[in-house]
Design goal:
The protein is mostly helical. Helices cover 80% and strands 0% of the residues. The protein is built from 5 helices and no strands. The longest helix has 61 residues. The protein is elongated, with a radius of gyration of 26 Å.
């Protein structure tokens, strides 16, 4: 008969490892959302500026009969059209939605893993194993339902979690968020 202390120790190690994978995936999805939102904002502003240059260039070219203004207006109009066609399908908006939804679904799984680690010592081994398996299936379903993360977002997630401690409170910090009474 295997030693239950060893089995429980291995089980806890596996659960902590799985929790870490969920944290990385959760944070990586947020990093993709941040990057897509930034790209969308930049494209929106570029489109506004280019459209303005196009309108002013063409209008000024027709009023002054300057060929260079007409060329500037026509060129910027073509660039504006290219940006409009690229953003027409709302590709970035879809990316933002999909990765936000994935992170939202992962949030509950992350919280359940943290609760399982907290409750570990007070639970029976079979109950821990059942909960662990349930969480593994839930994590698998999220990974199958949504687009995956990429190396760039994983690298940013690693920095956010290890260096910036983005998902954690400093000692006493959470207490400061509680009501005074």
């Amino acid at each position: 008969m295997p030693d239950m202390t060893v089995i429980r120790s291995l089980l806890l190690t596996q659960i902590k490892d799985s929790h870490g994978k969920v944290m990385y995936t959760y944070t990586a999805h947020h990093k993709i959302v941040d990057r897509a939102k930034k790209c969308k904002t930049i494209l929106d502003w570029i489109e506004i500026v280019i459209t303005s240059i196009s309108a002013v260039g063409l209008l000024g070219g027709f009023i002054t009969n300057e060929t260079s203004l007409k060329l500037l207006g026509g060129l910027s109009s073509a660039i504006s059209l290219a940006i409009t066609l690229y953003t027409k399908n709302d590709t970035l908006q879809i990316i933002i939605k999909d990765h936000t939804d994935a992170a939202n679904d992962l949030w509950l799984i992350r919280e359940k893993y943290q609760s399982l680690i907290t409750d570990f010592d007070g639970m029976e081994t079979a109950q821990i194993q059942a909960t662990r398996t349930e969480l593994m299936y839930a994590f698998d379903q999220v990974n199958r339902k949504y687009p995956g993360t990429d190396p760039r977002s994983y690298k940013k997630a690693k920095k956010a979690l290890k260096e910036d401690e983005e998902q954690y409170f400093a000692p006493g910090e959470a207490d400061k968020l509680l009501p005074h009474s």
